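Exercise 7b. Backbone tokens:
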């Protein structure tokens, strides 16, 4: 039996496959509802180790373990726990760390060494990445008032395939942001206390006996002897928070037809697109995406596509990202050669943060191929508004 001939015979009989919008929506929702653990890498968190002579209590160690686990989950990681046997020292080299990672089936091992401080605690992090046998170490200060933000900043920079790279100078050692905020709050309290204790000025009394020259010179002398008020320390700019893992996007595209078969007349195709996606925790610049699209203009269609985008951040505050995208899937024409077809497209992509979780994404140029008839090729672009959560 010739299956391809039978398929063509069905087309001659008027049997066309027309995708239903309901199936598209269900597929897109299923993509967004995939548990984060399916995309996340597995991080083994070793129980916190007290620094020798540091005097860390059990309550502090338990608190640090809970805080680190919460920070790792917030960054999209799947957390596994390693509680060592009593009197067994923590791992000290790559071989011992690899054994723990392989035992739990993970990719990373985080070993925190904890030392209490007046403002909170200090953590000497050891992070081992098994695929490349990379071991990095960094000691940081954690303030109670900024604990969650500080831990997320440090773990985001260490638990990834790139490692700490250029973030070490900004993160290692004291928490400069917390210290600046504390200094600013202390100065504000001091100013408020001085303002409350300052006595009310007495009514001015006219000086009858004092010469006018002395009355004029006295304030000048006092002004010279008065000590200058200390300048307020400038608050350090907060570190850039990582992008939220999920995204939804509504966009519009314009695609002029540059190649078509002899039966078509060309023209311009417009499209309205709804995208959803999720960032891969192990590769923060890579997103898996799905798109539901309705085309109009020179050709009507409904399409369901899946793919991804790679957007690398740049700039001091990482507000901008540039890269590319690739999507492919099912294309259902509603005019012309109706029925199911293949659609695939590639684009150069850039996006910029507008406000809060909202970003603006532009794909230009965008090259699309659709296999309807003898095939059609479009060259255009799109713009979309993105919300991350």
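Sequence design result:
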């Amino acid at each position: 039996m010739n299956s391809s001939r039978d398929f063509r015979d069905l087309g001659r009989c008027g049997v066309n496959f027309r995708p239903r919008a309901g199936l598209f929506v269900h597929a897109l929702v299923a993509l967004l509802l995939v548990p984060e653990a399916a995309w996340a890498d597995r991080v083994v968190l070793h129980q916190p180790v007290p620094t020798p002579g540091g005097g860390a209590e059990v309550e502090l160690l338990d608190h640090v373990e809970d805080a680190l686990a919460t920070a790792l989950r917030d960054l999209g990681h799947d957390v596994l726990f390693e509680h060592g046997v009593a009197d067994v020292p923590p791992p000290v080299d790559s071989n011992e760390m690899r054994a723990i990672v392989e035992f739990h089936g993970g990719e990373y091992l985080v070993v925190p060494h904890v030392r209490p401080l007046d403002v909170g605690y200090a953590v000497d992090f050891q992070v081992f990445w098994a695929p490349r046998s990379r071991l990095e170490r960094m000691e940081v200060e954690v303030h109670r008032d900024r604990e969650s933000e500080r831990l997320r900043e440090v773990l985001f920079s260490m638990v990834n395939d790139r490692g700490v790279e250029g973030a070490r100078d900004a993160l290692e050692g004291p928490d400069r942001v917390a210290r600046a905020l504390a200094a600013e709050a202390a100065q504000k309290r001091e100013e408020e206390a001085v303002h409350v204790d300052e006595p009310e000025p007495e009514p001015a009394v006219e000086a009858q006996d004092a010469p006018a020259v002395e009355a004029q010179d006295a304030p000048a002398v006092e002004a010279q002897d008065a000590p200058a008020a200390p300048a307020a320390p400038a608050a350090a700019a907060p570190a850039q928070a990582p992008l939220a893992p999920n995204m939804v996007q509504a966009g519009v595209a314009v695609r002029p037809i540059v190649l078509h078969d002899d039966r078509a007349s060309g023209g311009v195709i417009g499209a309205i697109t709804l995208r959803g996606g999720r960032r891969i925790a192990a590769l923060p610049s890579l997103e898996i995406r799905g798109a539901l699209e309705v085309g109009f203009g020179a050709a009507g269609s409904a399409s369901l596509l899946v793919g991804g985008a790679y957007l690398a951040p740049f700039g001091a505050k990482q507000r901008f990202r540039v890269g590319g995208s690739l999507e492919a899937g099912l294309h259902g024409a509603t005019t012309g050669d109706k029925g199911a077809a293949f659609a695939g497209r590639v684009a150069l992509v850039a996006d910029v943060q507008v406000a809060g979780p909202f970003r603006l994404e532009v794909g230009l140029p965008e090259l699309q191929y659709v296999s309807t008839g003898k095939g059609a090729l479009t060259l255009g672009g799109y713009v979309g508004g993105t919300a991350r959560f």
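Instructor comment: Residues 176-197 form the longest helix (22 residues). The chain is about 25% helix and 40% strand.
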